[in-house]
Amino acid sequence: MNKPEVEFQAGPPPAELVVKDLVEGDGVEAVADGVVEVHYVGVDYETGEEFDSSWNRGETVRFPLRRLVKGWQEGIPGMKAGGRRQLTVPPELAYGPAGGGHRLSGKTLVFVIDLIDAS
């Protein structure tokens, strides 16, 4: 797969996590306490500006799901390798409310995640 284009979403940001499968995978399934290898793009919901992308670094990333933001912990389990999923993550499940000390605090974030592998 190639780097995804994240579609701009009109209207107010959702108050809860929104999970949307863009491509159904048919490989191993990600589990809540597992490790995932992914390619991803993250954009700010309101501006559509990209703030991070493993694609730009030219390599996938691998980490335990429990070490990621809550939106990923809740939105990735059940996804299968080979799949592409979009997560729209409210601040409470990302980097917390505005003033939380992270540059993305208070922001609703949109991630498009390609699951390469899970264990």
TrEMBL record:
Catalytic activity: [protein]-peptidylproline (omega=180) = [protein]-peptidylproline (omega=0)
InterPro entries on file: PPIase_dom_sf, PPIase_FKBP_dom
Pfam families: FKBP_C (PF00254)
EC number(s) given by UniProt: 5.2.1.8
SUPFAM superfamilies recorded: FKBP-like
UniProt KW keywords: Isomerase, Rotamase
Listed name of the protein: Peptidyl-prolyl cis-trans isomerase
Organism: Saccharopolyspora erythraea (strain ATCC 11635 / DSM 40517 / JCM 4748 / NBRC 13426 / NCIMB 8594 / NRRL 2338)
